[in-house]
Design brief:
The complex is a heterodimer of chains A (319) and B (556).
Chain A (H helix, E strand, L loop, with lengths): L1 E9 L9 E9 L5 H11 L19 E4 L2 E4 L14 E5 L6 E3 L2 E2 L2 H8 L22 H11 L6 H5 L1 H5 L6 H11 L7 H10 L20 H14 L7 H16 L4 H9 L4 H16 L14 H11 L5
Parallel strand pairs in A: 1-5
Antiparallel strand pairs in A: 1-2, 3-4, 3-5, 6-7
Helix pairs in contact in A: 3-6, 6-7, 6-8, 7-8, 9-10, 9-12
Chain B lengths: L1 E3 L3 H12 L5 E4 L15 E2 L10 H11 L6 H20 L14 E2 L9 E2 L5 H16 L2 E4 L1 E9 L2 E9 L5 E5 L3 E3 L20 H8 L4 E2 L4 E8 L8 H5 L3 E3 L7 H4 L9 H13 L8 E4 L4 H8 L1 H11 L8 E10 L2 E3 L11 E3 L4 E2 L11 H23 L7 H16 L4 E2 H15 L3 E2 L1 H21 E2 L9 H25 L8 E2 L7 H4 L4 E3 L7 E3 L17
Classes of the chains: A alpha+beta (319), B alpha/beta (556).
The complex binds flavin-adenine dinucleotide, iron/sulfur cluster (2 copies) and FE2/S2 (inorganic) cluster.
């Protein structure tokens, strides 16, 4: 048994203007999960400590919270892996959400991101044409099973820096869910779905990898790449900035082995999009003033062929 | 129509009702995808015959035999006959089932089944079905009142007229009018200290219906699952044994063949749990456990088909199932008993239905087969809605009386007003301890009498002295937890009383003082009627329905 101090964020939206913190000491085995420590604190010390939980086995997605500054499932985090040398564990509600009470947050914006996907199978043919199940190969199903492990815990959403600056961004979990339908061979709305998720700012993802810290190994970041690739492969909304940017970046790197920034800007915004280019002109002028203006043309690096073989190996579509 | 509960049974009912044109809403104490159905790992049974020839009659027979002949055979047949259709229904709506090389749905062997009949998705079957049904709610725009806790059922002029629900976000109690109410609130594993059930499996629907005068049936039959982790009660799916895992005692023996010469590890759950417990009591256990050995399945198969349980075991025990056997023991898992219904999910009160684990239709009788309860949620979720759709067309408007709401306001008000007393977690612990000590795998009269007395005392303490510490109106889980404890106490008392009165051993109930099954006296259901104080009144007016299969000696 060990004495563990839970340093807890306390807040009640109905009565408190500002949050405060409580330190609660519980006597539990060191290997106890943060969730069980909270349960003990609630049962034995202070019944008003509030948090969500249900399965206590990392499958219901209820108990995500910020533990020592990192968001994760309380029921999957043993105290001894996070406490400091004094036995203190700091718990806060998930970031990127409005707190409701203590560790409980308002989840509605997260659920709305799913609703926007029309998250249900829309097959190309009528069910009645199949007396039995639709046939799907084990490999095609396997792809979906891996994302189906998502428990909608919002850990990734809470960790995402783009969500924190632009709440309209679909966020990693919803994009992974979109992938689940986009890659489902039974679904008939592939293009529409890609278009929808693109409109929900798919291309804003900054590829920071924060959401790779997914407790269920869904790796939403990799699914985001998959969806972006699908979007280019299927040529959906190719005139938007996202795909244009991705393509011109890879094009210049393939051609020169380097990022040709001037061309990237033109390519992303559009060479003939005068208004768009004028908008970035002040930035260009400021850069020029600081001597940071990128050169208009970039010469290929000596061993550019080697770079090109990387593209071929990865089968990155360029054009 | 209102459906209480957003697990598989509740969502299946709501989708059926919505497609049938009803104005339907779900009230759930959690977001639907948080429901404990999502924890189901192993699979769902249907005689699709994708791997070996199979028939719905064979499925019915296995179910009836598994039930130790306490299931109502007409209900069991209704379920097994409907199973293939319901699986195809789920598949057509996008459910992600694992596949055979030819693209059809894969099936795995499960305990007590004659053929590989269990459809699955790796070891996350419950989760994928839960998501499929939630997607259908989105599709049909079914309104979900999430984080509303149902506290009471309104019965006016003998018919169900709605419910009272507590809005967890702001502390309001609201009266909900409904011509038909379907309870789908899940199981009651939290009666016990160690259980595979999550925190939310607290007998709510059972307690609510019971308080409103509907009997609970066969509550004494609680399934103890053979393979749960000692550390936290978490389940290791039967799918592991279905895929070929062994059970070993301290001597390294595959002891199951001493108990079930033909089926070994794949005997029915009650048989396996008793065998394990017998081994442990005989000193052939290791730290109070036996071992679940998956090593010979190999890394690839474990990672492909059983990845979740490997990780759960690793998290809880530090042992990697690929390299080491996992210590396991039996734990409380499934509540066969529940709200008495007919084979359409209808209770004795018109307009009130129950489906899923909170109901007792009786398809599982004295012991449920693995893979049959996910099936039950789907089949009887749909059937109860079908019946209710018909019923609501026939009756006029209903109006729940304000009295029900006023009563609930008083009850909740009294709990919140008390400034001292015994907190619900302590009361629950006292109940859990006696239930675990006296109503576990092997039972006898003295122990059961003690359980009845102990829980009766807890009942009294709760009524007189229960104290809720949190007075907040926002997300008051201290209050909700106390109300859950209230329901659990009722369910526990019905269980202990029913077990004591049933002087035989059948399925999950093993009485050391009455070791034999007694078909002459006990081919009948236990109906428990709530009394204002003390144990329930027991009534045996409902006989078991036997159609095709005459009771036989049950061996595996
Ligand atoms: C770990 C585990 C593994 C399992 N594996 C399998 C398997 O492989 N195959 C199989 O066939 N069966 C399995 N089972 C059994 C099966 O999963 C359950 O019996 C089934 O999922 C129960 O579904 P349900 O819809 O009845 O209840 P649940 O899924 O428990 O849902 C209950 C719902 O009711 C709501 N609710 C409860 N009380 C209230 C209230 N007072 N007010 C409002 N809402 C309320 C909850 O919010 C929840 O939405 C397993 C069970 C467990 C615990
Ligand atoms: S992708 Fe992972 S982190 Fe994100 S919601 Fe799903 S399970 Fe949670
Ligand atoms: S990789 Fe993209 S989605 Fe994931 S956290 Fe970073 S910005 Fe957000
Ligand atoms: S309690 Fe279910 S994920 Fe943690």
């Amino acid at each position: 048994m060990a004495k563990i101090t839970l340093d807890i964020f306390r807040f009640d939206e109905a009565t408190d203007a500002v949050p405060h913190r409580d330190a609660v000491v519980v006597d539990v085995p060191e290997t106890t999960t943060v969730l069980d420590a909270l349960e003990t604190a609630k049962a034995e010390i202070d019944g008003s400590i509030s948090f969500r939980r249900s399965c206590r086995s990392a499958i219901c997605g209820s108990c995500s919270m910020n533990i020592n500054g990192i968001t994760g499932l309380a029921c999957k985090t043993p105290c001894n892996t996070v406490m400091d040398e004094k036995g203190v564990v700091v718990v806060d509600p998930m970031p990127n959400f409005q707190p409701m009470k203590d560790l409980v947050v308002h989840m509605d914006p997260f659920w709305d991101k799913y609703s926007r996907l029309k998250p249900y199978l829309q097959p190309a043919d009528a069910d009645s044409t199949h007396e039995r199940e639709r046939r799907v190969s084990p490999e095609d199903m396997k792809k979906l099973v891996d994302v189906a492990n998502c428990i909608m815990c919002a850990t990734c959403y809470a960790l995402c820096p783009v969500v924190s600056v632009d709440p309209a961004f679909a966020g990693p979990a919803a994009i992974a869910y979109a992938y689940r339908f986009i890659e489902d061979v039974r679904d008939g709305q592939r293009k529409e779905r890609i278009a929808q998720i693109s409109e929900d700012y798919l291309w804003l993802c900054a590829h920071c990898y924060a959401c790779s810290y997914c407790p269920k190994h869904v790796d939403p970041h990799d699914r985001i790449i998959d969806v972006k690739r699908a979007s280019i492969k299927d040529r959906v909304l190719m005139n938007e900035r996202g795909p244009r940017h991705a393509l011109v970046v890879s094009k210049t790197i393939k051609q020169t082995g380097m990022l040709a920034e001037t061309e990237v800007i033109q390519g992303t915004i559009g060479r003939f999009n005068v208004r768009g280019l004028l908008k970035v002109a002040p930035l260009g002028l400021r850069m020029a003033a600081k001597g940071k203006m990128p050169p208009p043309f970039v010469k290929p690096i000596p061993k550019v062929d080697e770079v090109r073989t990387i593209f071929e190996a990865l089968e990155v579509p360029v054009s | 129509m209102v459906v209480i509960g957003g697990g598989l049974a509740g969502m299946r009912a709501a989708v059926e009702a919505a497609e049938g044109g009803a104005d339907v809403a779900i009230i759930s104490k959690m977001h639907p995808v948080r429901s404990h159905s999502g924890a189901a790992q192993g699979g769902i049974n249907a005689a699709l015959g994708n791997r070996e020839e199979d028939s719905t009659t064979a499925h019915t027979f296995d179910t009836v035999k598994g039930s130790d002949y306490l299931a109502d055979q007409d209900a069991a047949a209704a379920m097994c006959d409907d199973a293939p259709k319901q699986i195809i229904w789920l598949e057509h709506r996008g459910c992600i089932f694992s596949r055979l090389p030819d693209g059809r749905i894969a099936q795995r062997p499960f305990g007590g089944a004659g053929t590989p009949r269990t459809c699955y998705s790796a070891d996350v079957t419950g989760l994928v079905i839960l998501h499929t049904l939630w997607e259908q709610l989105e599709r049909f725009g079914v309104k979900v009142y999430e984080e509303y806790f149902c506290t009471a059922l309104a019965v006016d002029d003998g018919v169900g007229s709605g419910v009272v629900a507590y809005n967890m976000r702001n502390g309001d109690l609201e009266l909900v009018t409904a011509k038909a109410t379907i309870f789908a609130t899940g199981g009651a594993g939290r009666m016990y200290l160690k259980t595979t059930n999550g925190y939310a499996s607290t007998a709510d629907g059972m307690g609510i219906a019971y308080k409103a005068g509907i009997p609970l049936m066969d509550m004494e039959f609680m399934q103890f699952h053979p393979t749960t982790l000692k550390e936290n009660g978490v389940l290791m799916t039967e799918g592991a044994r279905g895929e070929g895992a062994h059970l070993l005692n301290a001597l390294g023996e595959r002891f199951m063949f001493n108990y079930a010469p033909n089926k070994g590890e794949l005997a029915s759950r009650d048989v396996v749990s008793r065998a394990e417990w017998t081994e442990i009591l005989a000193g052939r256990g290791i730290d109070g456990c036996v071992l679940l050995d998956m090593r010979h399945l190999g890394r690839e198969k474990i990672l492909e088909r059983l990845p979740q349980i490997r990780e759960l075991a690793l998290d809880a025990t530090g042992k990697d199932a690929i390299e080491e056997p996992i210590p396991i023991l039996p734990g409380a898992h499934y509540t066969m008993g529940g709200i008495e219904t007919d084979k359409w999910g209808a209770t004795r009160v018109p307009g009130v239905y129950a489906a899923g684990e909170c109901a007792n239709v009786s398809v599982h009788g004295a012991n449920r087969l693995g893979g049959n309860s996910l099936l039950e949620t789907i089949v009887f979720g749909a059937r109860s809605a079908t019946h209710a759709l018909d019923y609501i067309k026939k009756i006029g408007d209903v109006k729940p009386s304000e009295k029900t709401l006023a009563n609930e306001r008083d009850r909740v008000g009294a709990l919140l007003a008390r400034t001292g007393g015994t907190r619900a977690p302590a009361l629950r612990r006292a109940m859990n301890e006696t239930m675990s000590a006296n109503t576990f795998i092997f039972r006898d009269d003295a122990g059961l009498a003690k359980a009845v007395d102990d829980v009766t005392l807890v009942r009294k303490q709760f009524d007189e002295d229960a104290y809720v510490m949190d007075k907040s109106k926002t997300f008051n889980t201290d209050l909700v937890g106390a109300m859950e404890t209230d329901f659990l106490i009722d369910a526990s008392l019905a269980l202990a009383a029913g077990a004591r009165a049933r002087t035989e051993s059948r399925g999950a109930q093993a009485r050391t003082d009455y070791p034999e099954r007694d078909d002459a006296n006990w081919l009948k259901h236990t109906l428990a009627w709530r009394q204002p104080a003390g144990p329930p009144r027991l009534d045996y007016s409902r006989a078991v329905t036997i159609t095709e299969f005459d009771p036989q000696v049950r061996t595996y």
